[in-house]
Specification:
The complex is a heterodimer of chains A (225) and B (273).
Chain A lengths: L4 H5 L7 H15 L8 H22 L3 H17 L25 H6 L1 H8 L3 H9 L6 H13 L3 H14 L4 H24 L11 H13 L4
Chain B lengths: L13 H22 L9 H14 L3 E6 L9 E6 H25 L2 H20 L1 H19 L6 H15 L7 H30 L13 H16 L8 H9 L4 H14 L2
Antiparallel strand pairs in B: 1-2
Helix pairs in contact in B: 1-2, 1-3, 2-3, 3-4, 3-5, 4-5, 5-6, 6-7, 7-8
The chains are: A mainly alpha (225), B mainly alpha (273).
Chain lengths: 225, 273
């Protein structure tokens, strides 16, 4: 936790959301690793700025804006979700995995996460995420359960990142590594097949001259396509 | 964001290539017939893919022919057109309309506003024909711009929103295929949105614009994108495709990376010795 996230971003605590976002993007322009390749100090500053920004946003938006969108997504997408395999991988990446079956070694952690586990077992993934977002301390176990819950509700990027964080925090925990591997496996299998297929070398627009004209038209209006 | 779902022409057999062109020309014809010659410029590969996929799924009758068109008047070329071409043409207009409006709102491009105005009447007509699709598109576009305005740093949130939009476009009818089509379109839309964000990251940082991938190290993009495509392909496998399987797979395994690979090469040249 950063004691003064507003100070890191250089804004006052009563700044509007837009002012904070503007200030964040100014700092990103200065320190983002993509514009400062190989600059360790810039990278350190950027992760500090990121942490501060996320801290402010989670304090301001948790359960309101961000939660609201996820809720909407759940409502709108529920028609398809009913028929989906729970993890949406086409195969169950956690096959043989039992939310309760982690043995005694994580008993105390399990106790703190009992509501989350209950939601996961009942298939109420959005609720599990909300429950997790309401928790204060974020240790390796938190990231592990968050990876599970997000994976189940189709938030694949969050799931991957949180599984990685869990492994980073506790590299010797085999369960965390197992979940990370399961999440990564599908992507690796796809990448393999895709490489066998061969990557495209040409540019778009060889099929029909119309596309070239369309692109010209796009260039006239200057919008990136 | 549009035009990503293309084929890799180098890996198509001559027959597949002909089929792909015919589908494209059929869609272009459908656009011209239904929404006027001007609308043909909005054609893109995404909707060509949709026509191929829906035709492969529903296998409904189509008209086949040869034509000369304004854009390539010196020779005739084959086309095939079905009810799905007409549907995709309608969706193409709606998506282009919101894309233009978005450009107007974000970057105050007057030309974009004019283009949007040009298609406004058509969009109203289409909304009456496909109320469910059009209301979902409208709602998701509004949600998406609210998410972007709020500066959401979790890429899943806007990507899911765009996925929902694409899911609605892919689910042509409320029948037995609707759930699987919505899931597949959703996964594909999510990939398209995230890939676009990855490609725009440097430009957005420079211009101080919103980009959902800003907190992710660009070294991790490949892994994330492959993960999203794996999900997409898994959902594709659930669709009972009756024809053009190889062509569709070309797009999902190779062609979809065209923009990304082109950008990587460009970056490689710039960063090289």
């Amino acid at each position: 936790m950063i004691t003064d996230p507003y100070g890191v971003l250089g804004v006052s605590p009563d700044a509007s959301e837009e002012e904070i976002a503007r200030s964040y993007r100014k700092l990103a322009k200065k320190y983002h690793p993509d514009v400062n390749p190989g600059n360790a100090e810039a990278a350190r500053r950027m992760s500090e700025v990121n942490a501060a920004y996320e801290q402010i946003k989670s304090g301001k938006t948790s359960g309101t804006a961000a939660g609201g969108y996820q809720g909407q997504e759940a409502g709108g997408g529920s028609a398809s979700r009913g028929q989906e395999d729970p993890f949406g991988f086409g195969f169950n990446p956690f096959e043989g995995f039992d939310f309760f079956g982690q043995g005694p070694r994580q008993e105390s952690a399990d106790f703190a996460f009992r509501t989350v586990i209950g939601c996961l077992n009942a298939g109420r993934y959005e609720e599990a995420i909300e429950e997790l977002n309401g928790m204060g301390e974020r240790g390796a176990a938190w990231y592990y359960y968050s990876a599970l819950a997000n994976s189940c509700s189709g938030n694949r990027i969050t799931a991957l990142q949180h599984a990685k964080t869990a492994v980073q925090m506790e590299p010797e925990n085999p369960e965390y590594r197992r979940i990370l591997n399961r999440i990564q496996n599908g992507g690796q299998a796809y990448q393999q097949q895709s490489r066998e297929y061969g990557m495209p070398t040409g540019n778009l627009g060889r099929i029909c001259l119309g596309v070239i004209l369309t692109n010209l038209f796009c260039m006239c209006c200057g919008r990136p396509c | 964001m549009f035009g990503t779902i293309a084929a890799n022409p180098d890996k198509l057999t001559p027959e597949e290539s002909l089929r792909y062109r015919s589908c494209y020309c059929g869609l272009c014809r459908a656009l011209g017939d239904r929404h006027g010659t001007m609308s043909r410029v909005t054609i893109n590969y995404d909707m060509t893919f949709l026509v191929l996929l829906l035709s492969a799924l529903y296998g409904e009758g189509c008209t086949v022919g040869k034509e000369r068109c304004l854009i390539r008047p010196w020779k005739t070329h084959p086309y095939f057109r079905s009810g799905m071409s007409d549907y995709a043409a309608d969706m193409n207009i709606v998506l282009a309309y919101y894309h233009f409006l978005d450009d107007w709102a974000d970057e105050k491009k007057v030309l974009s506003l004019l283009e949007a105005k040009l298609f406004e009447k058509e969009v109203l007509r289409i909304a009456a024909r496909y109320p469910h699709q059009c209301s979902t598109i409208r709602r998701c576009m509004a949600d998406l711009s609210a998410i972007e305005r709020a500066g959401e740093t979790n890429p899943d949130v806007p990507a899911n929103c765009f996925g929902q939009l694409m899911g609605a476009v892919f689910a042509v009818r409320e029948d037995g295929h609707a759930g699987d089509l919505r899931a597949f379109g959703g996964a594909l839309g999510k990939f398209v949105y995230v890939m676009d964000a990855c490609l725009d990251l440097k430009r957005d940082i420079r211009k101080e614009l919103y980009n959902p991938m800003i907190t992710t190290a660009s070294g991790g993009f490949d892994e994330i994108l492959n993960l999203l495509m794996a999900d997409c392909v898994a959902k594709y496998r659930r669709l009972p495709v009756r024809q053009d399987g190889k062509l569709l797979e070309n797009i999902l395994y190779s062609g979809i990376w065209t923009k990304y690979e082109a950008d990587r090469k460009k970056a490689g040249r710039r960063g090289g010795p």
